[in-house]
Automatic annotation (TrEMBL):
Protein name according to UniProt: Pyridoxal-dependent decarboxylase domain-containing protein 1
Single Gene Ontology BP annotation: carboxylic acid metabolic process
Family: Belongs to the group II decarboxylase family.
Record bears the keyword Transferase: no
Signal peptide residues on this chain, from the entry's feature table: none
Gene3D superfamilies reported for this sequence: 3.90.1150.170, Type I PLP-dependent aspartate aminotransferase-like (Major domain)
The keyword Endoplasmic reticulum appears for this protein: no
Domain PDXDC1/PDXD2 second: 387-493
Native species: Panthera pardus
Length: 788
């Protein structure tokens, strides 16, 4: 780069390119030192700090910019990183610096240079995107080109609009037709820019019965146009989509062009699918956009070029009207907007441009083919052969629901079933989209909420692949992540209805329907003092739920628990997360209910303990005073005199027992300490009651975590019991198989004549509680007659 700069004859241009190269290195690698000035003079406090003194050098200023750009990334590790700007990005950034330098030339040189840049860029774009004999308007705001086109249409249809202004619109109001699938806020932006009232906008609905549900209904549009003409209105302009902002579907542009020619309406086309016009194969629906009156292109995201303006191509023969509408300008600064794109197109060349757009389309096809093989994933694609946008969502049929979601309500399907399935899947798809965005950031996924389908995930590599550097390996990783998350999604969705039924049937628990929570469900414990009609914060309930959350975390289960405010209120609830395995919902709900009830009872005990202790202290004081009076009567008055009492106690000591009082917190009663002094040990007192437990609490197998449903069920327990029974029988047979007393070793002690053998005595003790002796199990052998 430095060697190429030396070949430039203009020293100022060479120095500017060199400084830009150094600036880019500083901002990208973050390895420059900050040079600070020492001994700065104090100036007035009204002057900001960066402006004090004699100014700062270039390194210090760039270091400040770098800190502003990257300073918070160290603290927030999950913050999105700035896109990786390649060499073509440096060329585009160089165009802005060149534009500032070129603007300092003399007027004649500036006019020739800007005219050449504008004409070249216009010609190249028209040839690349098959728009013959067109003009170009370069603009920073993507919607600005459409606003200028609407102004041009107004001047074309209303000849006296320049002289009379909006008075000519009073008798014949203009109408701008927008699709219901257009990007949000477009109609409001046009009315604000043109000064038109909102009734001048007409929203055309999409198909409901036939065709794509994201395409403009042509028959209904024709009906609207006829009605407007009959009412004396002027159909002015129609905005069609070659790739809607949501799902990338293309309107029937060919049919719309015929309709616009019939009624004299200006046809404007925009959308991401217009990028495919640069490819060798183009679908017929997108190819029809080349016959429209104007179109808006966004080559910046398509080619990965930062700070490159959008382009609106249009066809018009009257240069005076285009000048009045603002589409053309005599200012050199307006013409220099094309300079970054002029440099970038030359750097990439036709092959580079086509390769980037083709690579993005191949990524879409790769993801689409892979998702077809994945269960529980629905793909919303208009044209499977050439759609550069893939929209998909997770779905699973619930009992009583329609397996194929449709836009038209099915009479046999209950509305509650449709709403339950929609809300459940929406929350899960939102969770899935966020997980995939974190796991595969190079995919550039977007989570969106559609009116008919619900929450979906969009993959639009034409808008993100060139910027993020998305590769085929990233698509494969994305599919692998989707497959790894499917078991969690399916299991959670299946357990949701069971969890709701269990909570509804459990006393003291309230099921909270939160459509935004992707987990198993939300539950709230209703304590005794809970005001069910109030939506305010409940301190006592928050305390109980905080203790419940702590107890649930101590169980170390695979489920995740969190506490938060209830949906549509401020009361605390327990949120139960996703489930990756079969969960015993009954045990989970019962554990929550029992634990919350214990926490409530313990909190009540602590609240009542203060009053109990206070009454106990008062009673102890009364009893101790009474004991002192009894001791005074027993010992007499003389023993209370200091000198006489000591002499009397020396001659005749009093054997007085030490008496005191102890307070039993468990029983809440006052007891005597005489037992402690006599036996030198503190009494056990009343045994505290056992902690209540669930009626359905089960014994877990070794290594089994809480709330896990046993896969083998009762078979595992029966096998365990049978094994233990066999072991007991083997032990008994071993004990019963000991030789008779006759076989004792000589020299051993002879048993008592009336006593049983030692082994038999042991067995007698072992089976004295009604157990059957092992000899009873052995078969009875009848003695032969010869031995009788």
């Amino acid at each position: 780069m430095d060697a190429s700069l030396e070949k430039i004859a203009d020293p100022t241009l060479a120095e500017m390119g060199k400084n830009l190269k150094e600036a880019m290195k500083m901002l990208e690698h973050s390895q420059r030192r900050t040079e600070e000035e020492n001994g700065k003079k104090l100036v007035s406090g009204d002057i900001p700090g960066p402006l004090q003194g004699s100014g700062q050098d270039m390194v210090s200023i760039l270091q400040l910019v770098q800190n502003l750009m990257h300073g918070e990334e160290e603290e927030e590790s999950q913050s999105p990183r700035i896109q990786n700007i390649g060499e073509q990005g440096h060329i585009a950034l160089l165009g802005h610096s060149l534009g500032a330098y070129i603007s300092t030339l003399d007027k004649e040189k500036l006019r020739k240079l800007t005219t050449r840049i504008l004409s070249d860029t216009t010609l190249w774009l028209c040839r690349i995107f098959r728009y013959e004999n067109g003009c170009a308007y370069f603009h920073e705001e993507e919607r600005e080109g459409l606003a200028k086109i609407c102004r041009l249409a107004l001047h074309s249809c209303y000849e006296d609009f320049v002289v009379d202004g909006f008075n000519v619109l009073y008798n014949k109001k203009p109408v701008i037709y927008l699709s219901a699938a257009a990007r949000p806020g477009l109609g409001q932006y046009l009315c604000n820019q043109l000064g038109l009232p909102f009734p001048c906008l007409c929203r055309v609905p999409c198909n409901t019965m036939f065709g794509s549900q994201h395409q403009m209904d042509v028959a209904f549009l024709e009906k609207l146009i006829k009605e407007d003409v009959e009412r004396g209105k002027l159909p002015l302009l129609l905005v069609a989509n070659a790739g809607t902002a949501a799902v990338g579907h293309t309107d029937k542009i060919g049919r719309l062009k015929e309709l616009c020619e019939q009624y004299g309406i200006w046809l404007h086309v925009e959308g991401v699918n217009l990028a495919t016009l640069a490819l060798g194969y183009v679908s017929s629906s997108v190819l029809a956009a080349t016959k429209c009156d104007s179109m808006t292109l966004t080559p910046g995201p398509w080619l990965g070029l930062p700070a490159v303006p959008a382009v609106t191509l249009y066809k018009h023969d009257d240069p005076a009207l285009t000048l009045v509408a603002g589409l053309t300008s005599n200012k050199p600064a307006d013409k220099l907007r094309a300079l970054p794109l002029w440099l970038s197109l030359q750097y990439l060349g036709l092959d580079g441009i086509v390769e980037r757009i083709k690579h993005a389309c191949q990524l879409s096809q790769r993801l689409q083919e892979s998702l077809k093989k994945v269960n529980h994933i629905k793909i919303l694609v208009e044209d499977e052969l050439s759609s550069p946008v893939v929209v998909f969502r997770f779905f699973q049929e619930l009992p009583g629901s329609d397996p194929v979601p449709t836009a038209v309500p099915v009479p046999n399907m209950a509305p509650s079933t449709v709403g339950r399935e929609r809300h459940s899947c929406d929350a899960l798809n939102r969770w899935l989209g966020e997980q995939l965005k974190q796991l595969v950031p190079a995919s550039g996924l977007t989570v969106m909420d559609l009116e008919v389908e619900g929450v979906c995930i969009r993959f639009s590599p034409l808008m993100t692949a060139a910027v993020l550097g998305t590769r085929g390996e990233d698509v494969d990783q994305l599919v692998a992540c989707i497959q790894s998350k499917l078991p969690v999604l399916t299991c959670t969705l299946q357990l949701r209805e069971e969890f709701k039924q269990e909570v509804t049937g459990t006393a003291g628990l309230l099921y909270v329907d939160d459509p935004n929570w992707p987990g198993i469900g939300v539950v709230r414990y209703e304590h005794a003092n809970d005001d069910k009609n109030s939506l305010k914060l409940d301190p006592e309930g928050e305390k109980i739920h905080a203790g419940l959350l702590k107890k649930l975390h101590e169980l170390e289960s695979d489920l995740t628990f969190k506490m938060g405010p209830e949906y549509k209120s401020m009361k605390s609830c327990i949120y139960i997360g996703m489930a990756s395995d079969d969960v015993d919902i009954s045990e989970l709900v019962e554990t929550i209910a029992v634990t919350a009830r214990e926490i409530e009872e313990n909190s009540r005990l602590l609240e009542n303990m203060t009053e109990v202790v206070r009454k106990g202290i008062q009673e102890a004081q009364v009893q101790l005073q009474k004991a002192n009076e009894e001791r005074l009567l027993e010992e007499g008055v003389l023993r209370q005199i200091p000198v006489v009492g000591s002499v009397l106690n020396w001659f005749s000591p009093v054997q007085a027992s030490q008496k005191g009082r102890t307070f039993n917190l468990t029983a809440g009663s006052l007891e005597s300490t005489e037992h402690t002094y006599v036996y030198k040990a503190q009494g056990a007192g009343v045994t505290p009651p056992q902690t209540p437990s669930g009626t359905r609490a089960k014994q877990r197998l070794p290594g089994q975590k809480p709330f896990k449903r046993s896969l083998r069920g009762s078979d595992a327990l029966s096998e365990t019991s049978s094994v233990s029974h066999v072991e007991d029988l083997e032990k008994l047979e071993h004990l019963s198989g000991v030789p008779e007393p006759d076989g004792l070793e000589p020299g051993g002690p002879e048993p008592h004549p009336g006593a049983p053998p030692p082994q038999e005595a042991e067995l007698t003790g072992a089976f004295q509680n009604g157990a059957q002796r092992p000899e009873d199990d052995r078969p009875q052998v009848e003695e032969p007659e010869s031995l009788r």
